[in-house]
Amino acid sequence: MVAPPPPRVRRSAGDRRAQLVAIGLELLPATPVQELTIDEVARRAGISRSLLFHYFASKRDYYTAVTRAAADVLLEHLSPRPGVPADEQAAGMLERYVGWVETYRDAHLSFVRGAAAGDPWVAEVYEETREQLVDLTLGALGLPDDPRRRQLVRAWFAFTEDLVDQWVREPTLDRAELVALLRTFLDRLLV
Description:
Elements: H1 13-27, H2 38-45, H3 49-55, H4 59-78, H5 86-103, H6 105-116, H7 120-141, H8 147-169, H9 175-189
């Protein structure tokens, strides 16, 4: 006798949204967010395409939710580790950032370029994330938060994003040299 299949469990709206965003996050290492197909996400969730739109009003709403979730994961990943001496926190953050771009290069590049191209939903998430990264950096360095330092750290992030992206494609330095170079530039900017 064949056992009947287990009963389907109805998920709450919040659980289903979280599941759909998690599927998007799983796909991000190989697929930039704008290239995620709703059909593939729905298939992996075991739902119809139309049901996905019950939880997200549009593709853009879904992409925004996935982008925000990815930004939250990035921020958590880069946050200083408890117990790490202040003078090592910035280098640790940089090391983790380089690793992040190595792992999620296409998705990261899509995020950065989507913001630069003026896509409003990407730009909004990007700017929020950039400001939080500025906060993390100033905190890790134990520096006061003022308009001048914020502006310099924002500019340093633009330089860092570009250099790390180029380095991932064509490493001209070893990883330790790259991290040291980025840290040196940051220190010189903030003197």
